[in-house]
């Protein structure tokens, strides 16, 4: 009788252990990975070039186009020529260490989101050779960390605002082939580091 009782307890213990182990949580995707998946949602990716962006990974360190360092985490996104269409989502700005966003040479359309101005640490923004249309958001000229701003070959209209003089770190401004109008503002002369200007 006692033996049988022991046996039952043991069996229960085993079952309990099996049940517990099968519920040990798999290490889940970190917050930055989740932000990137949210960012991906607004793209259409017919060539499956973002296939490696997998929610089962624990970090986005191996995802294509992502620059990741253990100490700073996601610092760059470079999706040049990934055959992407759809829209650009400003939710990338939730990535606190993002310094480069480069989506040049795709088929991305819609407006350039004015909320990109929330990417406070962004140094390089390259949106060239896409199908962005609508008015140039003047908020882009509040991004004080920008060193390179490339918007060439899109369908953006409007004027370059005087506020461009606030981008004191700007080294490169590439805006040719758009529907921009008006004069190059005189405040541009305040940009002492500006070495490359391709407008027109
Ligand atoms: C892109 O934006 C347009 C208009 O705002 C919307 O109709 C469309 O569904 C968006 N596409 C994606 C892939 O989110
Ligand atoms: C982009 O799409 C074209 C046409 O479908 C295809 O030939 C090309 O290999 C694709 N390139 C990439 C990088 O996916
Ligand atoms: C990234 O790839 C390396 C080499 O293939 C692998 O050892 C590592 O586990 C991968 N990391 C993640 C988070 O997927
Ligand atoms: C965007 O990425 C491409 C490919 O890596 C690179 O050639 C280009 O210089 C980048 N744009 C900027 C503004 O750095
Ligand atoms: C940005 O530039 C405008 C026009 O040149 C100026 O009035 C404004 O004070 C500047 N803002 C900042 C935050 O420097
Ligand atoms: C851009 O300008 C061209 C002519 O300069 C005009 O034909 C075209 O309709 C304009 N596009 C937009 C989106 O404003």
UniProtKB/TrEMBL annotation:
<keyword id="KW-0067">ATP-binding</keyword>
<keyword id="KW-0325">Glycoprotein</keyword>
<feature type="signal peptide">
    <location>
        <begin position="1"/>
        <end position="28"/>
    </location>
</feature>
<dbReference type="GO" id="GO:0005886">
    <property type="term" value="C:plasma membrane"/>
</dbReference>
<keyword id="KW-0677">Repeat</keyword>
<dbReference type="GO" id="GO:0004674">
    <property type="term" value="F:protein serine/threonine kinase activity"/>
</dbReference>
<keyword id="KW-0433">Leucine-rich repeat</keyword>
<protein>
    <recommendedName>
        <fullName>non-specific serine/threonine protein kinase</fullName>
        <ecNumber>2.7.11.1</ecNumber>
    </recommendedName>
</protein>
<dbReference type="Pfam" id="PF08263">
    <property type="entry name" value="LRRNT_2"/>
</dbReference>
<keyword id="KW-0472">Membrane</keyword>
<keyword id="KW-0723">Serine/threonine-protein kinase</keyword>
<keyword id="KW-0418">Kinase</keyword>
<keyword id="KW-0547">Nucleotide-binding</keyword>
<feature type="domain" description="Leucine-rich repeat-containing N-terminal plant-type">
    <location>
        <begin position="29"/>
        <end position="66"/>
    </location>
</feature>
<keyword id="KW-0597">Phosphoprotein</keyword>
<dbReference type="InterPro" id="IPR013210">
    <property type="entry name" value="LRR_N_plant-typ"/>
</dbReference>
<dbReference type="InterPro" id="IPR001611">
    <property type="entry name" value="Leu-rich_rpt"/>
</dbReference>
<keyword id="KW-0808">Transferase</keyword>
<keyword id="KW-0675">Receptor</keyword>
<keyword id="KW-0812">Transmembrane</keyword>
<dbReference type="InterPro" id="IPR032675">
    <property type="entry name" value="LRR_dom_sf"/>
</dbReference>
<keyword id="KW-1003">Cell membrane</keyword>
<dbReference type="Pfam" id="PF00560">
    <property type="entry name" value="LRR_1"/>
</dbReference>
<keyword id="KW-0732">Signal</keyword>
<keyword id="KW-1133">Transmembrane helix</keyword>
<dbReference type="GO" id="GO:0005524">
    <property type="term" value="F:ATP binding"/>
</dbReference>
């Amino acid at each position: 009788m006692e033996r049988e009782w022991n046996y039952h307890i043991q069996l229960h213990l085993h079952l309990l252990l099996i049940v517990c182990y099968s519920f040990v949580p798999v290490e889940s995707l970190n917050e930055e990975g989740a932000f990137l998946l949210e960012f991906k949602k607004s793209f259409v990716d017919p060539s499956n070039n973002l296939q490696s962006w997998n929610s089962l990974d624990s970090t986005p360190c191996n995802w294509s186009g992502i620059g990741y360092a253990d100490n700073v985490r996601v610092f760059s996104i470079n999706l040049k020529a990934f055959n992407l269409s759809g829209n650009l989502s400003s939710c990338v700005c939730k990535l606190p260490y993002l310094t480069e966003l480069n989506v040049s040479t795709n088929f991305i359309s819609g407006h350039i989101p004015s909320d990109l101005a929330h990417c406070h640490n962004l140094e390089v923004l390259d949106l060239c050779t896409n199908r962005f249309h609508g008015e140039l958001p003047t908020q882009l000229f509040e991004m004080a960390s920008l060193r390179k701003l490339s918007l060439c070959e899109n369908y953006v209209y409007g004027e370059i605002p005087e506020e461009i003089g606030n981008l004191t770190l700007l080294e490169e401004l590439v805006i040719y082939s758009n529907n921009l109008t008006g004069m190059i503002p005189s405040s541009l002369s305040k940009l002492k580091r500006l070495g490359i200007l391709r407008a027109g």
